[in-house]
Amino acid sequence: MSDIKKGHVRKTMKLKTRKTLIAYSFLTVPLLFFLCIRIFPTLYAFSLSFSPENRSGFTLDNYIHLIHDKVFWRSAVNTLLYVAITVPVQIAIGMILALAINKVHRLQGFYRIVYFIPYMTSIVAVSWVWRLMYDPNTGFINEMLSWFHIPPQGWLTDPSEALISVSMMMIWQAMGFCMLIFLAGLKAIPKQFYEAAQIDGAGKWRMFWSITFPLLNPTIIFLAVTGVITALQTFTQIQNLTASSSGDAGGPLNSTSSIVIYMYNSAFNDFNMVYASAITVALFILILIVTFIQLKVLSKNFED
After folding, report:
1. Of 35, 100, 231, 263, which alpha carbon lies 20 to 30 A from 175's?
2. Nearest CA to 273 among 178, 281, 77?
3. What is the pTM of this model?
4. What is the distance between the alpha carbons of residues 244 and 265, in angstroms, rounded to a whole number?
């Protein structure tokens, strides 16, 4: 009897070992893909940033040049401006839209689709449509302003308006995503809280600030963190809205250039991959610092 039990245990162990090996074999493929596509290029770019232009040796010249590079600092300031302008506005509009749609009983799905379509649409296609609308001579936006006797604006051709123009397009495209996430957060709030608040005589504003807003804190943190990371890596919108005939984007006068745009111009227009790698490392450090501070500040405020 003991031999039968031992044989059964042995077979069970072999079966578990076989299942474990199969599981690890399935995990090996995505792990190798992640190492080859993510980890290795990251380490290679980091090592390349410490190389001189001939790619031999070790030097800090690229980072010293970066510190004294006025275009880089202008791009860094622009990147932070994109974050400061787009993220709060798109979250605020997304919350307002979600609150409004959540109160609608008819055609709620239709309104969700309408506001979410810009997020699903190709960024390149949307950017070119907005570029045509921003055209100072034939654009629809200036045509619409003329109805109200407002003089035409330069939009993407005016250094003082170009960054705001790009930000408006980014907000318009991302607010639908924020709306959808907020709707999911609103659906997760138990209705019993609102019923108890109504019994206590609380008004709509009181219920919003005491129930809805606090319970949407995890949603706000998620949208804030993902929105900041996305804004720090802004590229496609700027590239398609501001690219000149020579291929350089970020104009006019670097007024819309972000760190990613400057990195792209350095790598593929100036063919300076070494310096572009240094810019990439600087962007990585910036994203790491901003995300860490953001998580600390938001989490602390919401806990209080």
Report:
1. 263
2. 281
3. 0.83
4. 12
Q: Under 8 Å CB-to-CB from 163, ≥6 apart: which residues?
A: 78, 81, 82, 85, 255, 256
For residues 265 and 133, membership in a common domain is answered with yes
Q: Are 91 and 294 in contact (CB under 8 A)?
A: no
pLDDT in tens, 165-198: 999 999 999 999 999 999 999 988 888 888 888 8
Contact 202, 90 (CB under 8 A): no
Helix axes 162-187, 123-133, angle to 10 degrees: 130
Identity of the amino acid at 148: F
Q: What is the pLDDT of residue 9?
A: 54
Distance, in Å, from the CA atom of 228 to the CA atom of 91, rounded to the nearest integer, reads 11
3-state secondary structure the chain: CHHHHHHHHHHHHHHHHHHHHHHHHHHHHHHHHHHHHHHHHHHHHHHHCCCCCCCCCCCCHHHHHHHCCHHHHHHHHHHHHHHHHHHHHHHHHHHHHHHHHHHCCCCHHHHHHHHHHHHHCCHHHHHHHHHHHCCCCCCHHHHHHHHCCCCCCCHHHCCCCHHHHHHHHHHHHHHHHHHHHHHHHHHCCCHHHHHHHHHCCCCHHHHHHHHHHHHCHHHHHHHHHHHHHHHHCCCHHHHHHHCCCCCCCCCCCCCCCCHHHHHHHHHHHCCCHHHHHHHHHHHHHHHHHHHHHHHHHHHHHHHC
**What separation in angstroms does the CA of 153 have from each of 128, 254, 256?**
18, 19, 17
* CA atoms of 283 and 2, how far apart (whole Å): 65
CATH number at residue 268: 1.10.3720.10
Measure the CA–CA gap between 177 and 103, rounded to whole angstroms. 18
Please state the domain count of the chain.
2
Same domain, 26 and 151: no
In this prediction, residue 82 carries a pLDDT of 94
